[in-house]
Amino acid sequence: MASILRDTITTTNTAVNSSSMMVGKSSNIAAATTTGPLSPPSHHNHSQHPQQHDPRKENHAACVEESTRINNMGIAALACGNVAPALACFRRALKPLIQQLRQEAQDEAATTVPLHQQPQQNHRGHDRPVSAVSPAAAAEQPRGASGVLPMTIMDIERCLATSCPVNANSGSNNGADAVDPLASLHARPFGLVETPFSDDHIEDSKIRFSIVCFNLALIFHLQGLLEHSQTTERLHKAKSMYQNIFRLLAERIELGPTGNAVVDMVFMAMLNNMAHVALELADANQPIAQQLLVVASRVQVTSYGSDERISKWMQQHSRIFLLNVVAGAFTPPSIAAAA
């Protein structure tokens, strides 16, 4: 897991840094978006027994506040059709999350005891050495799944229902034109809230990283559709970032809905758009489409607790993803013609 996380951070960081060259001088952000990193909040405890501070939790709280604020600024910029400032905001929102996840990966690698150094009992109950395992292989041992927390309808609406349609001068998305490349694309960014997605702050950061990464990938995806006749560079960047999201979230989704509508929606939207971009790049996309079919079909009324509004809302959106697959939206034209 540690090496997967390091690889994901590296590839995303490369795409984030290279995107700054694409934006150029047109990506000037308003003064409100140029504030520096937040300092951890100060605590004044006048009791005789002051509480012990947890630096990791304090850093996470500051990271959550900063990334949430800047991500949502990016969505506001997109609502006004300002793509360059939105791109810059999403890049800045990723930075504190990347820093935190990189530090956690380093801490985990430093504290992981290689398996060949751990004692193991033989059948007689005596300690015996385990066969040698490299530190890199030991770092791949699973951390143990952390619980994904459910969210209230208010938080879900702030993340999903109020997300603005992307306006990137890329044409309409009304589905009336059968050849419209946006007809099957999930072209809405995701908002963030400070409510935790997981009871583990590292897992919480991975989910937030995935959400901001999706928003950034969506801009590359839309811009790539506009430039497809000249270059596929941005489509490849979008594909790489969707793959990063898959690597971080797949193990949480593989057994069925997580119970958090936002996490499940992000995962389905990622699979949908990954199948879409693979079709544009003439890559094999049927395994991706089939996985979307499986994930979306698992969304049930009972998946999201007692609030029927959440379950009905998720069922409605999962049907859209199912329809994209069943209707052949991701089927290559050659295969569709042969059928």
Task: Please supply descriptive tags for the structure shown above.
11 helices; 2% strand; two-stranded antiparallel sheet; mainly alpha; globular; single chain; 339 residues
Characterization of this structure:
With 339 residues, the protein is mainly α. It is built from eleven helices and two strands; from the N terminus they run H-H-H-E-E-H-H-H-H-H-H-H-H. It has a two-stranded antiparallel sheet. A hairpin with a 5-residue loop joins strand 1 (119-121) and strand 2. Helix 1 (2-23) packs antiparallel against helix 3 (83-111) and helix 2 packs antiparallel against helix 3. The protein is globular, with a radius of gyration of 22 Å. Residues 21-44, 126-146 and 167-178 have low confidence and may be disordered.
